[in-house]
Design a protein that fits this description.
Elements: E1 6-13, H1 17-27, E2 36-37, E3 73-77, E4 88-91, E5 99-100, E6 116-120, E7 126-130, E8 137-140, E9 152-154, H2 159-163, E10 167-172, E11 175-181, H3 188-206, E12 236-244, E13 248-255, E14 261-267, H4 274-297, E15 311-315, E16 321-325, H5 332-338, H6 343-362, E17 365-366, E18 375-380, E19 383-387, E20 394-395, H7 411-414, H8 429-443, H9 452-464, H10 470-478, H11 490-498, H12 515-519
Helix pairs in contact: 6-8, 6-11, 8-10
Length: about 550
């Protein structure tokens, strides 16, 4: 029967006979008898006994831990409460620890007196916190087996550990346990009461003198200084593949310490263009800085709204990885297939993407590959989109490299497809054309065929074929414009749109502000491209399944 007083069970586990023996003897140790619980069922063949903790003979070897009903265990409850100042403590100090871990020679003196403890975080999730010298390992269905010290693992209260068939806490290769956390979804109110009482007990313990807790402050817990210190960096468990392309693969991962989902983009091939990845990391860092500045100076305006996928972290050794925020609803194309975008939603996409371009263009960064697959949907109701995949982005006012996707490439890039002719420099106005074509695609549709400049002409003809109304007038007069110097900057377009009411959007008549004027601000020390600057054909950072 379900018991709301139960926090978790600890069962013996092991990779070999010695590991099972040590875990079983720990379960049965006299110091742990107050929390010991006999197996709910006995095995007729006598495989199970107080002296033996090896798994049943007929147990499948691919699953190391036997069925729970045949195992003795330790029972951790709210009513018993923690002994210590921080939570339910594991270690070799019998006076201070709730779960005593014996000092066997085979453990090489690597178990701390107060090695780690179980407690609850601010979201009432059960967590394991390491405080040892030699570190701890926690695995979820075999994943995440990296040793960490001064580290936090979420053990319960989240869908990932809750769905895991096996969570193992490994103190040493010769001592480990499976922890099974009780699911309190049936008793949510009682669970909150119990967690709050647990915290009160910890607070009360913290006020006691050290002697009252059985602590011996003169005992050293320092480890051998020659021993390699376990790492403290994040552990992110792979959940599934979000997308894969010629050069990169993106996976959904779960951070065991924060409980947050992230999208990890990494090279698909063993040999890859490292400079291209360094450039993307640099660009993403620059964008993050711009977003922060706008947040400070426009705190009371929705101008600072986040419409660019955020770089959470990055790794350069041994292979490059971009740790990006996870955007759960896929890209524009996928969402449009599921439910066609309404006219109002297309206006929203336009406005939010212009907000994103204002962010990046103010830092002299050009995306150069805007398309539906690179615009992700954070939510549908209300609609919130984010520009993603800066693999082809470049810092500078003028560029030369032919890159991007044919359907959304502007004339100044399309004219050089397959050509070795000298290339004229282009500006960030390329992003305005590309976004205009994206909006045309969802608001009206694209022409049926064409390549290079012929395609660009067909796009303009398609825009001009529609009868006059607010959105199509805005696109064909101010975004889908052949001459890049006559296209409007993201800021100018956004300023005008922000000043319109919903009814006024059906009678648009903005005044021009060309890129030629704005780029004069950056005439000193401009970065000029003279050749290819990275891999083409980058996939979007995330593609929802």
């Amino acid at each position: 029967m379900a018991n709301p007083d139960l926090i978790a069970w600890l069962f013996p586990a092991g990779e070999d006979d010695l590991g099972w023996k040590n875990a079983g003897e720990t379960i049965h140790h006299e110091e742990n008898q107050s929390i010991f619980m006999k197996a709910q069922q006995q095995i007729d063949r006598g495989i199970r006994s107080r002296e033996s903790t090896a798994p049943p003979e007929d147990y499948e070897p691919k699953e190391r831990t036997p069925h729970w009903e045949y195992l003795d265990r330790l029972r951790l409850t709210f009513s018993r409460g923690p002994k210590g100042r921080k939570g339910i403590t594991f270690g070799t100090n019998a006076n201070a620890c709730d779960v005593y871990l014996p000092k066997w020679n085979c453990l090489e003196n690597k178990i701390g007196r107060e090695h780690c403890y179980l407690t609850f975080d601010a979201q009432n999730r059960l967590i394991l916190q390491d405080e040892s010298t030699h570190g701890t390992i926690v695995t979820y269905n075999g994943l995440g087996g990296m040793k960490r010290r001064n580290f936090t693992w979420i053990i319960g209260g989240h869908e990932v550990p809750q769905d895991a068939k096996e969570i193992i806490i490994k103190f040493h290769e010769n001592l480990q346990f499976q922890i099974v956390v009780f699911n309190h979804e049936a008793y949510p109110q009682q669970y909150v009461v119990n967690v709050n009482r647990f915290r009160q007990q910890i607070a009360a313990n913290a006020e006691l003198p050290m002697a009252g807790l059985g602590l011996r402050s003169n005992d050293s817990t320092a480890g051998n200084s020659s021993v390699q210190t376990p790492r403290t960096d994040a552990i992110r468990l792979k959940q599934r593949t979000l997308g894969k392309g010629s050069f990169a693969v993106v996976t959904l991962r779960w951070d065991v310490s924060t409980g947050e989902y992230v999208a990890v983009k990494e090279p698909y091939k063993r040999v890859y263009n490292k400079e291209s990845w360094r450039n993307e990391i640099y660009v993403m860092n620059q964008i993050a800085h711009v977003s922060f500045e706008l947040l400070i100076f426009h705190a009371n305006s929705d101008v600072f709204q986040e419409n660019v996928v955020n770089l959470v972290d990055y790794i350069e050794v041994p292979r490059h990885q971009l740790i990006l925020e996870y955007v759960p609803y896929g890209n524009l194309e996928e969402q449009h297939i599921q439910r066609r975008f309404s006219n109002i939603e297309v206006w929203t996409i336009l406005r939010q993407c212009l907000t994103a371009l204002e962010f990046v263009h103010q830092k002299r960064i050009v995306h150069r590959d805007l398309k539906p697959e690179n615009i992700l949907v954070a939510s549908r109701d209300p609609l919130h989109v984010k520009v993603a995949d800066f693999g082809l982005a470049k810092e500078g006012s003028y560029m030369e490299t032919v890159c991007g996707t044919d359907l959304y490439a502007p004339p100044e890039i399309a004219q050089y497809r397959g050509s070795n002719a000298p290339r004229e420099r282009y500006t960030r106005a390329v992003d305005i054309w590309s976004l205009g074509v994206v909006i045309l695609r969802f608001g009206y549709g694209l022409p049926g065929q064409g390549r290079g400049l012929e395609w660009c002409k067909n796009v303009m003809n398609e825009a001009n074929s529609w009868e006059s109304e607010s959105m199509i007038d805005f696109l064909r007069n101010y975004m889908i414009v052949w001459n890049p110097e006559q296209r409007y900057s993201a800021g100018a377009c956004l300023d005008f749109l922000n000043g319109l009411s919903m009814s006024q959007r059906y009678n648009v008549a903005p005044t021009p502000a060309s890129y030629a004027e704005e780029d004069e601000e950056y005439s000193d020390g401009e970065a000029t491209e003279t050749g290819d600057d990275g891999e083409e054909g980058h996939i979007a950072e995330q593609v929802s399944n």
